[in-house]
Amino acid sequence: MTAAVSTITSRNPADPSDVLVSVPAPGAFAAADAVERARAARPGWLAGGAAARSAALGAVATALETAADELAALAVREVGKPLTEARAEIARSAAIWRYYAQAPYEPVGAVHETAAGPGLLLTRRRPYGVAGLLTPWNFPFAIPSWKAAPALAAGNAVVLKPAPEATACARRLASLVEQALPNGVCTVLPGGATEGNALVSVADVVSFTGSTTVGRSVVQAATARGIPVQAEMGGLNAALVLPDADIEQAARHIAAAIAGYAGQKCTATRRVIAVGPALGPLREALVEALRAVPVGDPADSATVCGPLINEQARDRVTRARDGLPVLAGAAAPGLPGWYAAPALVEQVPPGHQLLREEVFGPVAALLPADDLAHAVRITNSVPYGLVTSVHSAGLNPVLHGLDQLDTGMIRVNAPSTGVDFHLPFGGAKESGHGPREQGRAALEFYTSSRTYTLSTVGTM
């Protein structure tokens, strides 16, 4: 969780004088109260049946679509998301709720033959109870949606603890959800570490997205209680470019994955690995592509790279670049927010921060590799394993990469960014813990399997 706070404050990163939220933190007891209300409301929510849950989740999707312009503007203002991306996030969030609106009708078990004699053997998946959801600020509508919607579809109640920087977005999302659901079934708990720790200590199942350091503490606390937990903890993602790749296309994809939303995505490209003779042409094309990325006011629909979320984030990116040859990276725009221009650096020494930690901003290291095997070793050399993009016109190297890369997701001739919400999402090594998110995997995570044996009485 973020540090303990006495006041929750959310500022516009493009204009820090614009304060969206400033309220007292509710404290640990608020988490217990929210879970208690959710626990009391959950039996009625489950007993309402598939039709009621399906209709409610569909109503949330409709509400998001109806309020799309307002919600996109709020995401621009609170978390600095460029307007075009913000609109896409709202559309995706609505699609997520509509996708899971069909889930209550899906089979939740199976009938099996008995080993001997009459009777029935059944397996059935049942909800855990109250899901505690801890979400980051960078996707203030989509990530809470892809956690809450499957949990609710399966019959759980949820308590959502958003990052303080996305409090206004979370509250507005909750207001739309609460209109469609019974009272107490979905609650937003604002706050920082105190509230987050308290929620983990009382929830029945926990899902977390955020930093590796905080994710480890969440996993430890939940595991100590013996409750299911999943944690998505970022990445140090690589883009592998082979000599036979379409270099211009690869450069456009990689530039977008470095600079889009100022690199504030767990799937952003942090390392660019050029294989053999691809290095020279890729360096030139990527520098050109990054210099063409529009940097500026996120409210401008042409902007691709807006501000960093806060001053500390901006300074962290600046420090990471210091002392390294910068191939692309113009000065930040003369605007009042926390901006950093997209940067591509090279000659990065072994052990440098950019090669071992996730610097959450628009900066990436360009690295040479002798051949594909060398590129794979470089890719796998970090503690993370979320997503890798591979750029090649040939099938054989792609298949080799699919077999050898230690990452949860591999994208071929596409940016490292981008998520298909109906497929499992998650990483290997320190990028993730526990079962995958999204798709049917999410429905399984929020439920436990029970086995029933039904025997006959007497003989027929």
State the gist of this model.
The chain is α/β, with parallel strands linked by helices and 460 residues long.
Would you kindly provide a written description of the structure presented here, covering whatever features stand out?
- The chain has 460 residues and is of the alpha/beta class.
- The chain folds into two domains: 249 residues, Aldehyde Dehydrogenase, Chain A, domain 1; 176 residues, Aldehyde Dehydrogenase, Chain A, domain 2 (3-Layer(aba) Sandwich), CATH 3.40.309.10.
- The chain is 39% helix and 22% strand.
- The longest helix is centred in the N-terminal third of the chain and has 20 residues.
- The termini are far apart.
- 52% of the residues are buried.
